[in-house]
Amino acid sequence: MKLEQAAKQLEALGNPTRLKLYRILVRAGEAGRPVGTLQESLGIAASTLSHHLHRLILTGLVTQERQATTLICRANYPIMRDLIGFLADECCADAASNPAAGEAAA
């Protein structure tokens, strides 16, 4: 994952409403949630929800699929795992090469 992509995704999740929306979708699983259900859960106007969804879709964190007259939103789990991996994969990678840094923090 590129640094710029991760930064855009984290920026999109940096808004409390979008983070709450995203967590709802992550919890929903592969079935996702209809837009109407999301609007009820969040208690926000349709135009506001549309704006927040658009930001999450642009970063690849959320997908939408039309099923007849219903628009279903889903968390894009592979993209979510990539972002989490980007943040965690190199955890403590430099600690072994710089043991004095751990002592200085203590």
From TrEMBL:
Coiled coil: none
MF annotations from Gene Ontology: DNA binding; DNA-binding transcription factor activity
Keywords: DNA-binding, Transcription, Transcription regulation
Domain of life: Bacteria
Domain HTH arsR-type: 1-95
Record PROSITE patterns: HTH_ARSR_2 (PS50987)
InterPro entries: ArsR-like_HTH, HTH_ArsR_DNA-bd_dom, Metal_resp_trans_reg, WH-like_DNA-bd_sf, WH_DNA-bd_sf
Matching Gene3D superfamilies: Winged helix-like DNA-binding domain superfamily/Winged helix DNA-binding domain (1.10.10.10)
PANTHER family given in the database record: ARSENICAL RESISTANCE OPERON REPRESSOR ARSR-RELATED
Protein name, as recorded: Transcriptional regulator
